[in-house]
Structure prediction request, 81 residues.
Amino acid sequence: RVGRLNPRWNEVDAETGSKPDPDQRFALAVKLCGQDFLSVMTSVVESDLPARSFVEEALLKRTEVDASGEIIAFLSGGMPW
Prediction:
């Protein structure tokens, strides 16, 4: 995704008639990566980490579901992944 921000070898800015500024494209890439990172971290912090307690509880109670302990049940109905 970020690689597509690199100017093509023959790209010319329609307004100025010159080649695009690589520093400007780099700034766009930094912003894009920052947004992606924030999105992933938000998902981890608000969804994946809280789900860990449900998984731990299901693992601790797995022998109550099946004596072999090979089956776990999520009382909440499932996990986000």
User: Anything to note?
Assistant: The first helix runs from residue 22 to 60. The chain has two helices and no strands. The chain has a mean pLDDT of 92. The helical segments are 22-60, 62-65.
